[in-house]
């Protein structure tokens, strides 16, 4: 609808829906990204985030003033303090330097490539030479050139658009070959049958509310308190909204159509296996290509840093006085800070405590000089954590460093959340099978192409496994994988040389403490 009509709607809404005396007014920035957040043809704000925000406002007695704009306009107004918060913002370290984020994420997402029927994308390397339409100011505009280009040694052209309507228009007019958007673009009314999801996905991410940087505002804590309550209540507005817009909601029992989904999945896997036999020669060619690419990886120190960062659990290194020296990427994202923010800080200070936590695994490891493990609930963070600490001893037997391993086990403590995650996984499988079913209705040539794409996805997974196995064997550094009982389950060639033992004497037979 014309932009001026949207503005008129919000002006009239503000005039005729005045807040009651004493009600707190919260200015909220929204943009067009259905079904997460958008306004309809009458200018009414709608979407998952809007449903959640409206319920929080009812609980807290707030009056919401929604401010429509483009994505980049919302971030600019938030940075200037013209808005109290913006909905649907993915966390990144660069954004954390400009804005504050609440602690409890609203929803999970990832980036996915969408293209027309004539564009063939088997892996992320196929983005080479493509013209890619993205939302201006969104995380993909920064992530693609800064990380994907260098990592895969490919080149492409970005076409930033003010909104998702612009990305769709660019694709249909032939100005762009691919759209990179969040996974929720699949559910958007903007995506017609001519724009198909592909198997190219990357950067799993959490989505939050964003607030002006440095503002000591109780609104943030009140929003987190409401989110925590909603996510722990299967009948809340949170889950009703997911069901309304995405068809996602928690179930006490397994849905009736699960058998159909599993049957279709088994059939799809069998089909993939058949085509795997037919395309075995292509698998060999792809394996040779991956082996050649693995030889071009960075030096061992860079590689170890990359491995450290891709581990999904939180890993940290502390000194014997609880001073934090480093976290991996998952740690910085969990704490919503950067490597600059942790300088001179102790671990408990990063979660707003004045002294070490009770029953601290790191403190136990320092005192006993042995690995320690505890499970505890962090009330201020709203999560359960499985904390493990491993002391590093010098030649004199004194603790010099402590390796901290944290894992979020909240889902294990909340059966409803576990059921929801399983159900969401089934829906994702159903979504992929639905896409495959749509493509099977095309011509015989399209069928062959889709089957080839399924095989290519399998090839990429096998190649990825082989690549990381080669990295482990050829890193030039002695490496081993240690189980929770300290037994070495896997060792590379360098570890054999260093230890003087054959792998058959090490793996599953020796503990790593025998080599310290």
TrEMBL record:
<feature type="signal peptide">
    <location>
        <begin position="1"/>
        <end position="23"/>
    </location>
</feature>
<dbReference type="Pfam" id="PF13188">
    <property type="entry name" value="PAS_8"/>
</dbReference>
<dbReference type="Pfam" id="PF13426">
    <property type="entry name" value="PAS_9"/>
</dbReference>
<keyword id="KW-1133">Transmembrane helix</keyword>
<feature type="domain" description="PAS">
    <location>
        <begin position="464"/>
        <end position="516"/>
    </location>
</feature>
<protein>
    <recommendedName>
        <fullName>PAS domain-containing protein</fullName>
    </recommendedName>
</protein>
<keyword id="KW-0732">Signal</keyword>
<dbReference type="InterPro" id="IPR035965">
    <property type="entry name" value="PAS-like_dom_sf"/>
</dbReference>
<dbReference type="InterPro" id="IPR000700">
    <property type="entry name" value="PAS-assoc_C"/>
</dbReference>
<keyword id="KW-0472">Membrane</keyword>
<feature type="transmembrane region" description="Helical">
    <location>
        <begin position="257"/>
        <end position="279"/>
    </location>
</feature>
<dbReference type="Pfam" id="PF00497">
    <property type="entry name" value="SBP_bac_3"/>
</dbReference>
<keyword id="KW-0175">Coiled coil</keyword>
<dbReference type="InterPro" id="IPR000014">
    <property type="entry name" value="PAS"/>
</dbReference>
<feature type="domain" description="PAC">
    <location>
        <begin position="368"/>
        <end position="421"/>
    </location>
</feature>
<feature type="coiled-coil region">
    <location>
        <begin position="433"/>
        <end position="464"/>
    </location>
</feature>
<keyword id="KW-0812">Transmembrane</keyword>
<dbReference type="InterPro" id="IPR001638">
    <property type="entry name" value="Solute-binding_3/MltF_N"/>
</dbReference>
